[in-house]
Specification:
This protein is an alpha+beta fold and 232 residues long. It is 33% helix and 10% strand. It contains 8 helices and 8 strands, in the order ααααββαββααββββα. The longest helix has 18 residues.
Amino acid sequence: MRMSSGIRIRAPQDPDFDPSIGYPDHLYLYTGSVDSFEWAATRPQEWEPNTVGRYRNSDPVLANYLIRLAVEGRDEDYHSFPQRNLFDKIGIRDAIIETDPYGNFLAQGYEFLPARDWARLANLYLQDGVWNGERILPEGYVEYVTTLAPAWVADGRPQYGGGFMWVNGDSGWPVPENAYGMRGAGGQSATMIPTHQLVVVRLGKYTGAQAAGQALNRAFELLLEAVPPVEQ
């Protein structure tokens, strides 16, 4: 869950990616019409786990595979599990998670929520995993999520934490260093800023993502001017 599995998956984000070799595995998990769980689970190892940080779709796919095995091992319904165990509890009613042809959730990128629902999910993290007095995320999970992944730090890129969460460890975002968030294709994002108890959600079209990112950074600066930090 730290994008450090070491599984061999070719991805466009790789420093040594060569597009002439062919279609990248990272995208094939979206478009290959295969059993994504079985396909990811049968990839060879490239590096020892937790030694090299790379953004690979195989890692969340395998985490989702383990969830399906655990849920169905308890004779529970896999496809209603996210709604029953998370979304219903925090008021999310319009989430859509698409599947591959084998019914496996493609939760590495094909989940769609309105901005207010992304904000609910982000606020759950800001509240240390507790919602209306009920603990939903395990105690200590938010600390795990916001702790930089050792393999990414060793790789000179202190940008990734646990639980598939991006962390502002290199101050790449114009917000405090302890900010963290969910980042998706095309600049979609939900950013949590603990120092200000602030959540910022950005949704938009894939095209124009670079300009939108610049606008978001400016919005961060203005918001931090307008919203004072909370007293610790």
